[in-house]
Amino acid sequence: MxxxxxxxxxxxxxxxxxxxxxxxxxxxxxxxxxxxxxxxxGLMKQNTAEDGADPAExxxxxxxxxxxxxxxxxxxxxxxxxPKCEEEIYSFVGSVAGLKVSEVKDLSxxxxxxxIIAILQKEEFKDFFKVVSSLFK
Length: 137
Prior knowledge:
By secondary structure, the protein is mainly α.
């Protein structure tokens, strides 16, 4: 199905925040603490030492290991919380794509996924997250 996405506007901020809240960004903050990262790093160092390797020589492996574990934590939170915001996502996609919620629900999995990816790739969406993330620096 072909659809054209409209420009994201200030009225889109509130549905986006509602979705983000239900997706579990608070959970991310609570689970991905410095202590958790240190625990993950410690496990990698312990496993490396048990293998007889020098942990200082494996910085690339350490980054990969920590990155993979962080991604898994994020994926766990997102996947377990996505069903909580199903209706909000349908409504938001419909609003941006000029479709009724019922039309969004009837999209094939491929078209629905394409619509979500297209929204996430919109320049306004990226700019929004740049501004929001600057608050946490």
